Amino acid sequence: MPPDKTPEQEWYQLLTEGEPVGRLARRLQGLLPSSPRCKLCAGPFKGWGGTLMHILGRDQSRFNPRYCAKCEQFEHPGGTEVVITMLFADVRGSTTLAEKLSPTEFSRLINRFYVVVTDILVRTDALVDRLIGDEVVGLFVPGFAGPEHPRRAIEAGKKILVATGHRSPNGPWLPVGVGIHTGRAFVGVVGGEEGTPQDFTALGDNVNIAARLATNAQPGEILISDAAYGAAGLDLGNLEYRHLELKGKGVTTGVRVLSVSAT
Prior knowledge:
Blueprint: H1 7-16, H2 20-29, H3 47-55, H4 69-74, E1 78-91, H5 94-100, H6 103-123, E2 127-132, E3 135-140, H7 142-145, H8 149-163, E4 176-191, E5 198-203, H9 205-216, E6 221-225, H10 226-232, E7 240-245, E8 252-259
Parallel strand pairs: 4-6
Antiparallel strand pairs: 1-3, 1-4, 2-3, 4-5, 6-8, 7-8
């Protein structure tokens, strides 16, 4: 009889292979309205989709609103290192926007951004890691997005820029830049000690690289690291190539620039 797997081995299997039935269920639940959703299974908490999840026993957890009651029971601190693709979608010039709009108007605009980007990430099998200020973070984990996770992230980035109006002749309703990077990160659940809430997230230097790519992207641009572009195996034509000096890195990083515009 084979020995039981260690928690780290179980995490590795979940994050790299996933569960075929679970992946299908997550994809179907991602089609139901509406946000907010469970961070792991993508089940909605609002609308008629939320009513259906209630019937299935997947209400929003009373202990951790990021998850449904069933996924919250699964969550426990732990995780492992795995190669994933990270997408950061960042509102460019948000400080100037906030100065021009009333607090209520700015809040509505950012909330619209959250809803639009979250919907795209869920539909492309990403885990929505964070909604912070003017930024949304998506994790494309092999066990959830499949082995083609770098390609899925690039597809999601294009959809985000189109959805925010960067192909519109009138210009975007919100200026957004995207950074995409593939690399090894610690993925799992952190927190949960001494009453602190638990959260599923990714940690490590490669996460920081993806974040810095987004802050260097101009409105309508997706900055794709060499690692992500190579792993995606896509031929996106004659893309502009830039060498960036990312803050705090001390070395240049090569990126390809995929632009989405009305022209």
